[in-house]
Amino acid sequence: MWMLQFLFKRPMKLIFLFVMALFLATFPMSFALSVDGPHSPVVVDGIPLFYLQPVDKSSALDRTEFANNLLADAISNQKVINFDVRNDPNSSATSISLNKNYLLTVTANDVLPNFSLSQQAKRWENILEKAVVKAKKERTSQYIVERSLWILIGIGIIIILRFLLVIVAKITKWEIGNFTKVFFSFAWLVIALVSAEWFPVLRSIRYQIFSPFSQPQWLIFLGALGCSFVFSHYAPALLRFALKKLDIYSAESIYLAIIQPSEILVQFSVLSICISWSLSLLETLVPVVYELLKPIASLFVVGCLYWLSTKVTSRYLRTYGFKFGGKFNPSSDDAILVFETVLNIFIFIIALVTFARSVNFDLIGLVASLGLVGLAVAFAAQKILEQLIATLVLYLDRPFVTGDYIRLPAGELGKVESIGLRSTKIRSLGTGTIIVMPNSILVSVEIENVTLAKKIMVLLYMDFASVLGEREYALVQQVIMEKTAFLSGIDANSTNIALADESGTRLRVSLAILGSQDNAIEVRKRLLELASVQIAKSLSVHGIVFTMENPTVYVQSPATI
Fold first, then answer.
1. Residue 327 lies inside a defined structural domain of this protein
2. Which of 1, 166, 419, 429 sees the fewest Cβ atoms within 10 Å?
């Protein structure tokens, strides 16, 4: 089996390593093969020969593209190539021709110090002739076969050595170390380096791919991009360290309760901001790519920050808001949930406006214009809009949904059949007929939702270290009643404390959680957990220690209507 694995998986891995080695071998060299400043190189088979400067209305890139295309066509056609230097007596211009066709002009901007136009032209002519001779030689069948054979021999030696090493390791139970891996990686690096230098096609591909990245701005951009990933990875640790150094009260507990559960979101948010800043370096390098990536980066930044803000805000309010609000009003948990929803909507509006401004979209102007249009339409269709707005309120507030049993103001009990755009259909349980009520009336009257009248029975089992006496038992009852009395949504009349068995060391506490929505019930479960901690602290002061069975038992029970 290991032999089949070696024969199939190893070659794929070797191919991948070869490609990576080719990239690593050619990347450093690419910095010497590109344009640096206003000049542009004349290139033959990926090797820059000399540089041309811009002249009048012709840019350096236009001049070199014309010359490079002529040279590439002449070399690929296998024609005899002759270069000639021409001096025009009328214009005093010096040019180089290719097979009696114009190739390029040598201008004063192109001349090196202490060189005349003719001397510079002769120098370039010699460089071109040597480059063409080399290019033609590298395209001969003998050269290609010879170089390919050497490359294949090198690859074969590496594969055979690797194969023999695997066999020896299997027989002798010898573990392949890091030195061996480094050796073979270096071998593939040498193969890639030699291949990129021997074959003109690979040299041309290397030049076309890596030449744009030789500018210093690209190096800064790639460095900033790499630092973005590193900084975002350590952002939570840096934030935690900063909170400790600032010596903020309860900073450690705040971090553990609020930020630590969202550490991945913190990393993504920091990464999105850093990448957005890094992309600003592309504005001068590749404006088209920058304009394409800018909206995507802005959306990524705004989305991550919005998601992080809502998560942190929600967790903070549900962790500390309930404690703080319960000191003033036991029924403050519902108000905090409403405040959380309003705050999330406010954060969403800020995120939407921020993203619109980042892409130069006048969202405020659009809203203002739509407001004027809506005002004109409102006068023309006031009743229709009233019904539609009432329907929207029903869908957002959700006092009832399809299938719920509700009691109307007149005392009629019915089942909600459907909620339409203008009205709601309710089937009367007494007569079986359909009652059609406008949504505008339903949002303005008192509706009793019978379906949502439910409660959750909570069973807590407290195991004490010793048998409770009458005094300890009374103290436990008092503490439990005091700590749960202030909790909103806890039915005090349903609270029951009794011995769970005959040993006298185990108590069963049953509580009833009332709620209409799932999120409200979850909040009250969380409050009950916090109350359990307070009960344990209060009893420990009196020397009463207990353990609580996990998980807590929750039983759904119908509420009395």
1. yes
2. 1
Residue 172 amino acid letter: T
Instruction: Please tell me the distance from the alpha carbon of residue 404 to that of residue 453, in angstroms, as a whole number.
Output: 11
Same domain, yes or no: 467 and 527: yes
Structure tokens at 390: 């009432």
CA-to-CA distance for 266 and 235, rounded, in angstroms? Answer: 7
C-beta atoms surrounding 523 within 10 Å:
21
370 domain-assigned: no
Q: Which of 305, 324, 358 lies at the terminal end of a domain, its last residue?
A: 358
- The CATH number covering residue 419 comes to 2.30.30.60
The whole model's pTM is what?
0.46
For residues 292 and 320, state if they share a domain: yes
Backbone angles phi, psi at 278, to 5 degrees: -65, -40
Whether 63 maps to a domain, the answer reads yes
pLDDT in tens, the chain (561 residues): 444 444 445 555 555 555 554 444 444 434 333 434 467 888 888 888 888 888 877 788 788 888 888 888 888 877 788 888 888 777 677 888 888 888 888 888 888 888 888 888 888 888 888 888 888 888 888 988 999 999 999 999 989 988 888 888 888 877 777 777 788 888 888 888 888 888 888 888 777 766 666 666 777 888 888 888 888 888 888 888 887 777 666 667 777 778 888 888 888 889 988 888 888 887 776 777 788 888 888 889 998 899 988 888 888 887 777 666 555 555 555 567 767 778 888 888 888 888 888 877 766 666 666 665 666 655 656 677 777 788 888 877 778 888 888 888 887 888 888 888 788 899 888 788 898 888 888 888 888 887 776 667 777 788 887 787 788 888 888 887 877 776 666 666 677 788 777 777 788 887 777 655 555 556 666 666 767 777 878 888 778 888 776 655 555 655 555
Residue type, 194: V
420 within 8 A of 391, measured Cβ to Cβ: yes
Do 137 and 69 sit in the same domain of this protein? Answer: yes
DSSP string, 263-304: HHHHHHHHHHHHHHHHHTTHHHH-HHHHHHHHHHHHHHHHHH
Boundaries of domain holding 87: 1-214
Q: Quick one: 306 and 207 in the same domain? A: no
The verdict on residue 366 lying in a domain is no
The contacts of residue 450 (CB under 8 Å, 6+ apart) are 404, 405, 406, 407, 413, 561
Angle (CA) 529-535-537 rounded to 5° is 110
Whether residues 331 and 184 share a domain: the answer is: no
From its phi and psi, is residue 432 left (phi > 0), alpha (psi between -120 and 50) or beta?
A: left
